[in-house]
Amino acid sequence: MTGMKIYTRTGDEGETGLWGGLRVPKDAPRVQAYGTVDECNAAIGVARSAGVDTYLDALLARVQSDLFVVGADLATPGEAANIPRIGADAVQALEQAIDELEAQLEPLRQFILPGGAPSAAYLHLARTICRRAERRVVTLSRSEPVNPQITIYLNRLSDFLFVAARCANASAGVPDVPWESPRMRKEAKDE
């Protein structure tokens, strides 16, 4: 059985194809946006491979699937009837998941440092990549039409990933590490 080759040589000159056939430079804002979404998706995959509980793993699997929809949405300028688009239902699902996860956690009283258990650290990394993806989409939206639900979804996803990281730490029995400002450290030293 012969399958499709992984290499096509069509990108050797620094261009790539969008859905519909339009060729653009590989550093075009649209490619930067969906490429950063792909990075976020990969970071979530690393977090999952580091071990999270079954419930969180299922939520993260759904997010990874959603991010494929976001990527396809971004890679398809204009209207295409057969391309899925991210919508308000995905945002609502994230909000529901955030509320459910937060109910299991102690309320935050101060900023925390990214880190802890490996899965939590990877989720914090995914959160920062998600924020970068959001910035790339905002940049793109200044020059080309973009589904407005994408920015909302990415904004909410970064919140979800923060809470998911805290849950991963809690599940692993690793406390979140509070951030101490230089002033707080000085006051503690002076006491």
TrEMBL record:
It is an enzyme of class 2 (transferase). Pfam families: Cob_adeno_trans. It catalyses: 2 cob(II)yrinate a,c diamide + reduced [electron-transfer flavoprotein] + 2 ATP = 2 adenosylcob(III)yrinate a,c-diamide + 2 triphosphate + oxidized [electron-transfer flavoprotein] + 3 H(+); 2 cob(II)alamin + reduced [electron-transfer flavoprotein] + 2 ATP = 2 adenosylcob(III)alamin + 2 triphosphate + oxidized [electron-transfer flavoprotein] + 3 H(+). It comes from Roseiflexus castenholzii (strain DSM 13941 / HLO8). GO terms for molecular function: ATP binding; corrinoid adenosyltransferase activity. Gene3D superfamilies: Cobalamin adenosyltransferase-like. InterPro entries: CblAdoTrfase-like, CblAdoTrfase-like_sf, PduO-typ. Its EC number is 2.5.1.17. Signal peptide: none annotated. SUPFAM superfamilies: Cobalamin adenosyltransferase-like. PANTHER family: CORRINOID ADENOSYLTRANSFERASE, CORRINOID ADENOSYLTRANSFERASE MMAB. Keywords: ATP-binding, Cobalamin biosynthesis, Cytoplasm, Nucleotide-binding, Transferase. Belongs to the Cob(I)alamin adenosyltransferase family. Pathway: Cofactor biosynthesis; adenosylcobalamin biosynthesis; adenosylcobalamin from cob(II)yrinate a,c-diamide: step 2/7. Residues 6-167 form the Cobalamin adenosyltransferase-like domain. The keyword Cytoplasm applies. GO terms for cellular component: cytoplasm. It is found in: Cytoplasm. This is Corrinoid adenosyltransferase.
